[in-house]
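Have a close read of this protein, sequence plus structure tokens, and explain what the tokens say about the fold. Thanks in advance:
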Amino acid sequence: MTEIYLRLVDRILTPILLLIAIFLFLRGHDLPGGGFIAGLVAAAAIELTILALGSTATRDRYGPWLAPLLGIGLTVAVTAALIGMAGGGFFLGRWIQFEVAGETLKLGTPQLFDLGVMLVVVGMAVTYLLRLSEAAEAATPSAERQEPRP
């Protein structure tokens, strides 16, 4: 059974960590950051959920999304490479600019590639952390099998 304070910390910090991951992702195509570090921060948020709720509840919540997340991430990253190849070179950056409320918003293939990397990192890291947590829970004897301490 998990502690109540850990559940409270999970409810407070998980949304904050996910917002930080989004910030790092959006900042990364022009400045330090990007898909890899954003994926690790998002995986840390889900690890906090694993610690607070246990691996079974977390697998029920996120498990069905992990394998598709890996496939979608790889597809998005390869698509970014293919767009560059169609433009004349492998991973050649292509940009689209929009005017939104007087501000210029530019989106491009580097950001698309970062999105693919982020999805793959989240999928792999959470899968690994869930398996590790399940192995630890299986190795821990249940309360019924433990002998009382003298």
Remarks:
- The chain has four helices and two strands.
- Residues 143-150 have pLDDT under 50 and may be disordered.
